[in-house]
Amino acid sequence: MLNITNLRETLYFATDRCKIYLSSLSRTDGFFLFCYNKRKEHIGYVVKGKGDGLMRKIVVDMQNFLFADSIATAFRNSDYEIDVIRTESPKDTVELCQVYKPFVLIMEVTGYTPWNLCERLKLRDEVKKMCPHCKIALIVDSNTERQAAIEIRDAKKNGFIDQFFYGSMTAEYLMDQIYAM
User: Fold this and answer.
1) Would you say 59 and 93 are in contact if contact means Cβ atoms under 8 Å apart?
2) Would you give the distance in Å from CA 49 to the centre of its chain?
3) Rg of the chain (C-alpha set)
4) Are strands 42-48 and 31-36 parallel, antiparallel or unpaired?
5) Are 141 and 155 contacting, i.e. CB atoms less than 8 angstroms apart?
6) Between β-strands 19-22 and 56-61, what pairing exists: parallel, antiparallel or unpaired?
7) How confident is the model over 160-177, as pLDDT tens digits?
């Protein structure tokens, strides 16, 4: 039986075994719970989504910050139980995937380092070592990066990636495709 107590801005639920504190990471689309035992030692956590299940995560590694932000905003405002984690640079991608264990990693491909296809496939290999079930999706602007678009199509055909998208698609289409992965 849970007893709910409200102390200032911190909510906690007391059980016989532990106290579960609602963290400052709470948002309208989900919350993060820390679980402590009687000695106040951290013994676990639970990430709850909009519904009853756990919120799935995707990591977005894109050079175009505005496009990455629009993807995050679209998911935040949707009914999908998906949380978007954005990287600051490709250097952060592997570490964020190790921490969050996303079900999809989305990376933008351009014609120059560190966003070219070769670098992205190296990141894919590192992520797959830690998260073998993580799906890999690449996004490219097919109008300005025609050669990269052809190479990405071939990477999908040869089984190196799970999905690819062109930057000209709508946010709704992208969300549906990611959810279906």
Assistant:
1) yes
2) 13
3) 19
4) antiparallel
5) no
6) unpaired
7) 999 999 988 888 888 989
Distance from C-alpha of 97 to C-alpha of 132, rounded to nearest angstrom:
11
Helical pair 117-130 and 146-157, crossing angle rounded to 10 deg: 30
Interior/surface letters 32-48, b for 16+ CB within 10 angstroms, e for the rest: bbbbbeeeeeeeeeeeb
Q: Which amino acid is at 148?
A: A
Q: Which of 25, 17, 14, 71 is nearest to 47 (CA)?
A: 25
H or E element at residue 69: helix 65-76
Q: Return the bridge partners of 165, or none.
A: 139
Question: What are 63-104's pLDDT values in tens digits?
Answer: 988 888 888 898 888 888 899 999 999 999 999 999 999 999
Would you give the distance in Å from CA 6 to the centre of its chain? Answer: 31
Tell which wins on pLDDT, 99 or 23: 99
pLDDT at 140: 94
Give strand ranges (E) for the chain.
3-7, 10-14, 19-22, 31-36, 42-48, 56-61, 82-86, 104-109, 135-140, 163-166
